[in-house]
What does this fold into?
Amino acid sequence: MQDLSLHILDLIQNSIAADASHIELTIYEDKDKNWLIVDIEDNGKGMDETAMRRATDPFYTTRSTRKVGLGLPLFTAMAQRCGGDVVLESIKGKGTRIKSGFQLNHIDRPPFGNLEDTITTLILCNPKIEFVYIHKVNNDEFKLDTRDIRQVIGDIPIEHPEIINWIKSYIKDGLKEINGGVQ
It folds into this structure.
C-alpha cells in the first residue's frame, strides 16, 4: 500500500468484520522525538491466543473469500522497516488493539495519504458504527467523535451528503490547524 491511510483503512476493515460497534483511531506525531504512533482499538469479537499468534502470518486469514491475509503482516513489516514495531492485544469477546510505532521521518515511512477521505469513507459506509478519531501533533490535538456529531444533527442520518461533506471539511481543517496551517 502506498500510504498510511490505506493501511489504516485495511486494519479498521478488520475491526468492522469483527462486528465492532465502536472503533478508535489515535495518531500521535511527536516531532521532537521523531516518533509516530498509530493506535487502533475496537470492541469487536476479539481473538483467542492462537488467532492472535497467527494474525501476522500472511497465510492465515479468517476470511473464506481468500487464502491470505496481508493487512497486518504488511503493516508490521513496514513498522519494523521504519525502526518501530506493532503490538497486538486482543481479548476474545472484548475487542482488539493494534498499537504501532514508527520513526516519523524514516525514509521508508510512507506518507499519511488522504486521512480525511479515509475517515469520511469509513463513516459513510458504516453509519451504525461509532468512530473516534484523535490526531495529535506534539501538544496540539484534533478530535472527531461521531457520537458528538449525532447529538448535534439529531434525526438527520450521519451518512447524509451534507453531513459527510461537513465531516470531511472538518477533518481537513482540523489536520491543517494542528500542523501549523500546512496540510
